[in-house]
């Protein structure tokens, strides 16, 4: 990192670009260093991730032209609104809110159930994997000193990546980085096959995370949680005090082999 450390105000201006993978590498490093130590900014980033994931599933309904004019008229009193108007999904969110208000008299609203921590973790992991793949160029260089990279990430996350994530002659380790999944500090290791990133493993403290009974899959002698999300295969399991999340775009057999490759080595 070559730039000065960012404060909360500076990070707030870069969070949307960070989420979209539009920042330069130096800015990415500075933002992620701040997120690793600031729970308030991590919460903002996580809320953005979850909201964006939900809104991507909604049908696209253009907001009426008069709505934008009315919102812009209040910008002088609420300066923070200007930065939000630039986000493409905000118009959809406002429109969805207006629809909900209009339908409220006909709806029986009984409250929203508590968020599922595993659902949040899975959605956050898939979004992070997509972002990492956008940032890593084809033919990414191999991490030459995995132990040193693992130690650097541990200093920021308090999570030790096991040696099994260092890769082998077939699957090369091309990225090691700190990240945030579902408002939790996590360590990420990305493996590539023939120069193309194909799998990311996320490791985080998992003592308080549940192991769901539903969606368990049989892989050899193991029964992890597994599902498909936006074209990626996600496998979640726990071991000792750690939780592991694997996200890959390999086919079913390739996904099973990637899971077994790591699970048996731990």
What report would you give on this structure?
The two termini are 32 Å apart. The protein is of the alpha+beta class and 266 residues long. It has 3 domains: 8-56, no CATH class; 65-106, no CATH class; 117-263, Phosphorylase Kinase, domain 1 (2-Layer Sandwich). β1 (171-181) and β2 (184-193) form a beta hairpin. The protein contains 9 helices and 6 strands, in the order ααααααααββββββα. The longest helix is centred in the middle third of the chain and has 19 residues, at 117-135.
> Structurally, how many domains make up the residues?
3
CATH superfamily of the largest domain: MucB/RseB, C-terminal domain
Approximately what portion of the residues adopt beta-strand conformation?
15-25%
Helix content: 40-55%
User: What's the multimeric state?
Assistant: single chain
Specify the CATH class of the largest domain.
Alpha Beta
Distance between the termini: 32 Å
> Which blocks of ≥5 consecutive residues have pLDDT under 50?
106-112
Any idea what the CATH architecture of the largest domain is? 2-Layer Sandwich
Structural class: alpha+beta
What fold name goes in the CATH topology slot of the largest domain?
Answer: Phosphorylase Kinase, domain 1
Overall pLDDT: 82
Please give the number of β-strands: 6
């Amino acid at each position: 990192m070559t730039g000065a450390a960012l404060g909360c105000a500076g990070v707030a201006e870069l969070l949307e670009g960070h989420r979209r993978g539009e920042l330069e590498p130096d800015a990415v490093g500075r933002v992620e260093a701040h997120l690793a130590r600031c729970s308030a900014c991590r919460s903002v980033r996580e809320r953005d991730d979850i909201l964006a994931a939900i809104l991507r599933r909604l049908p696209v309904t253009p907001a009426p032209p008069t709505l934008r004019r009315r919102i812009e008229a209040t910008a002088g009193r609420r300066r923070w609104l200007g930065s939000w108007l630039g986000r493409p999904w905000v118009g959809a969110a406002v429109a969805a809110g207006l629809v909900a208000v209009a339908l409220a008299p006909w709806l029986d609203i009984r409250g929203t159930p508590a968020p599922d921590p595993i659902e949040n973790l899975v959605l956050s992991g898939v979004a992070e994997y997509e972002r990492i793949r956008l940032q890593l160029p084809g033919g990414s260089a191999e991490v030459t000193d995995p132990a040193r990279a693992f130690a650097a990430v541990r200093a920021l996350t308090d999570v030790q990546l096991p040696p099994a994530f260092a890769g082998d002659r077939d699957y090369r380790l091309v990225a090691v980085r700190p990240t945030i999944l579902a408002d939790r500090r996590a360590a990420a290791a990305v493996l590539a096959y023939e120069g193309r990133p194909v799998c990311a493993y996320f490791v985080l403290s998992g003592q308080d995370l549940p192991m769901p009974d539903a969606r368990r899959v049989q892989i050899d002698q193991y029964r992890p949680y597994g599902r498909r999300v936006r074209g990626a295969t996600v496998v979640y399991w726990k071991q000792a005090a750690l939780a592991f999340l694997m996200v890959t775009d390999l086919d079913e057999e390739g996904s099973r082999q990637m899971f077994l490759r790591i699970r048996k080595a731990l």
